Amino acid sequence: MAAIERGRMEALGSAARDYLWLLDRGYSSEAALKLVGDRRQLPREERMILFRGLAPSARAASRLPLLVSSPRGRRLLLDGHNQALTVMHYLEGRPLFLSNDGLLRDAGGSHGRIAREELFERALGLLAESLASAAPSRVLALFDAPIPRSARHAASFGELLAGLGIAAEARLEADADAPLKRAPPGSAVATSDSAIAEALAARPAGEGLALFDAARMAVARLRASSREGEPEEPWLELRSLLEEPDQKARR
Length: 251
Hints:
By secondary structure, this protein is an alpha/beta fold. The protein has twelve helices and nine strands. The strands form two sheets. It has a six-stranded parallel sheet with strand order 1-8-7-2-5-6. Strands 4-3-9 form a three-stranded mixed sheet, with helices on both faces.
């Protein structure tokens, strides 16, 4: 949250309300972002927060019930690059925020380009440690083969999980989204990819699928270890940002 100046929060809130109003009335995200971003003169980072952090209200509401705080005892399918990149962007000091569907996302916009491999490896380690504490029954970590050095990423993550005593498999996929969208009933999926979350929300409720925010758990553990008794800094939460100022004053 520190990466966004507190003085910008009111302006960002107004822009978020305008942007969501347009989304809920059928505007494409690109058209809505240009209209609001240009009118409000938003910098690139704030436009990215709106673009990645807000889904149409009905879609966001359909994903929220899938969120679980723990995958304990479940089979967990992990969107490897997606989740590790979120952790890496936190390590780089980029802003992270809770989207209106409840998932942690970032304003990184790296599109699979990993400039600092050593930082990405550290993110993989932090993610693996958080999964060990979450105690899923088994982990299947899927990595996107087109991303450079993806074979190394999958192998490294598999070794990390094995070293932590987690029953796991890490493998490459030409498109990791497809098997994640087809996750077996009863399993949990760790991702912040909107298309995957949308596909899971569209499946029958009786399948017992869940969304688990592994990146959020990893970042929360890292934040807690670095606070040293200091009060926890709140997340930038877009659902709160959408509230009108008088609504917040009444709480």
